[in-house]
Amino acid sequence: MLDLVHVWVIRQLTLGEFASRQAVLSKAVLMAAKIAVFAYLLNILGHLVLVAFGLLPYPLLPALVVATMLTPPVSFLVAVLAYSVVGLAIYDLGVSRQRFETLSRTDMLSGLMNRRAFLDTFEQARGPVALILLDIDRFKSINDTLGHKAGDDVITRTAKCLTEAPGAGEVIARIGGEEFAVLLRGQQTERALQIAESIRQSVESMGLAVGGRPISVTVSAGVSEGVAERGFSELFSGADRALYLAKASGRNRIVHAKQLVEASLDASFPDDAQRGAGLARLSA
């Protein structure tokens, strides 16, 4: 019997997590009502025990009337206040934790996923996936000639183009200074290329002006496909090499990893150590 009472009390005192302040107050009222009833029953039981041993110094009936008038409202009020204070503190801590988690997984400039969040999401993916790597063309020149404020504007506007691209989904990240990535689940080659082309066209036509001076912004992209279970490195390597070819072929274009042939690899790409630099930047 005592064990059952102990378990019940612990269950009632366990607050858990709350979705809102209203939920805290609702829980506090419910728990306080249970505590008031429990306290009232204990009070009555205590009086009966005292009567049984002849220790009650006053008549039982008036004592029960006083207990009925005082114990439930007082215990209810105290319990509501205590539960509300503790519950609101738990709620505020939960909100702060969620905000911190969001900040730790978000790129502050673009509002997209950061590198860590993107890699974590990939680890949870299963089955066929496609990766689109995008890089803003001649971004260093924009920073050097127009200033870092212009560079920041280019990044934020490019990020908006990615999030508004039809079919891009929610797994979109800024993985480097001017580098972005889109992870597509279960996508076929044609669909992945369509999404990449949609992003490229959107960036090219976004019409950005700095200080009243229009500037041209374009992106190059590499697309690669594979199976998520085989790991990120292989998928990234193909997309990174395709992106390099897109840059070397004149920029503002999309290249699929399937377009890479041995002859073009030997002629157009640096050695393996240099090609692995992109993966090192992402994995670091």
UniProtKB/TrEMBL annotation:
Residues 127-259 form the GGDEF domain. The lineage of its organism: Bacteria, Pseudomonadati, Pseudomonadota, Alphaproteobacteria, Hyphomicrobiales. Its EC number is 2.7.7.65. The chain crosses the membrane at residues 35-56, 76-95. NCBIfam families: GGDEF. It catalyses: 2 GTP = 3',3'-c-di-GMP + 2 diphosphate. The keyword Membrane applies. InterPro entries: Diguanylate_Cyclase, GGDEF_dom, Nucleotide_cyclase, Rev_trsase/Diguanyl_cyclase. This is diguanylate cyclase.
